[in-house]
Automatic annotation (TrEMBL):
GO terms for molecular function: protein phosphatase regulator activity. PANTHER family: SERINE/THREONINE-PROTEIN PHOSPHATASE PP2A 65 KDA REGULATORY SUBUNIT (PTHR10648), SERINE_THREONINE-PROTEIN PHOSPHATASE 4 REGULATORY SUBUNIT 1 (PTHR10648:SF8). This is PP4R1 phosphatase. It comes from the Eukaryota.
Length: 281
């Protein structure tokens, strides 16, 4: 009976129906044979609100910090033991708890595999994307690491949301935009030439005009890598269109800073051998 209960819980697509289980069935769903059950029960009880009030206000954060290690120890076959605890932590009122999970969600995705990631982690990931900047930076720093684990179709859905990373709670938070530029360089390998041109190019151009020089310098590298990627693609019209836009937007800019940006982008393209010299000329 226990095996059939576990099998049902593990394969049920709508796990929200778990609340209809009896307390006995609920307890069985947390049973495993990797570590002493009492030890796991003690760990799972860390999310009990009464413990935070009487034992340690930081206990939920410690629980979140340890969760990937516990998941690795138990194995993906026992994820059902941790799923409810993970969801409880992901909706914790303390942003420090959510931030801790945001920084490790890519590690957990590797442990769980693509099927469990798509079903159980992607909704949490989507919630973190709309959270406070202190939480969003966690998913942003490992955006490439997480997206590369998703199926191609699922990965493309996030192209529409990348633009949102340009908006932060505090406009002076320039490190957020610098991290975005760094991640976009890595993301170029995950998307097609058309996706790069349609979705990543406008963000890159916006970052090239940023008020903070550190953000702009990383963005020049981003644009040069974009030129290289589009040049290597079979459809050569994208790279020509991109270069024409660089000339129009920056070379012919009325502001000296825009024209200076064009020079710096040319320098980076030249230094990194992103184009054959005749095409560069």
């Amino acid at each position: 009976n226990m095996d059939s209960t576990l099998h049902y819980i593990h394969n049920d697509s709508d796990l929200s129906t778990n609340s209809s289980f009896s307390p006995e069935e609920e307890r069985k769903s947390k049973v495993q044979d990797v570590v002493p059950q009492a030890l796991l029960d003690q760990y799972l009880s860390m999310t009990d609100p009464s413990r935070a009030q009487t034992v340690d206000t930081e206990i939920a954060k410690h629980c979140a910090y340890s969760l990937p290690g516990v998941a690795l120890t138990l194995g993906r076959q026992n994820w059902h033991c941790l799923k409810d605890t993970y969801e409880t932590l992901a909706s914790d009122m303390q942003w420090k708890v959510r931030r801790t999970l945001a920084f490790s969600i890519h590690e957990l995705a590797v442990i769980l595999g693509d099927q469990l990631t798509a079903g159980d982690l992607v909704p949490v990931f989507n919630g973190f994307l709309k959270d406070l900047d202190e939480v969003r930076i966690g998913v942003l720093k490992h955006l490439h690491d997480f997206l590369k684990l998703l199926h191609v179709d699922k990965r493309r859905e996030y192209l529409y949301q990348l633009q949102e990373f340009l908006v932060t709670d505090n406009s002076r938070n320039w490190r957020f935009r610098a991290e975005l530029a760094e991640q976009l360089i890595l993301l170029l390998d995950l998307y097609s030439a058309r996706d790069i041109y349609d979705y990543l190019r406008p963000i890159a151009f916006s970052l090239c005009a940023d008020k903070v020089s550190s953000v702009r310098w990383i963005s020049y590298k981003l644009v040069s890598e974009m030129v290289k990627k589009l040049h290597m693609a079979s459809t050569s019209t994208f790279v020509v269109d991109l270069m024409n836009e660089l000339v129009e937007k920056f070379c012919r800019c009325r502001k000296w800073s825009g024209r200076q940006t064009f020079v710096f982008i040319c320098q980076t393209i030249s230094e990194d051998d992103c184009l054959p010299m005749d095409q560069f000329a």
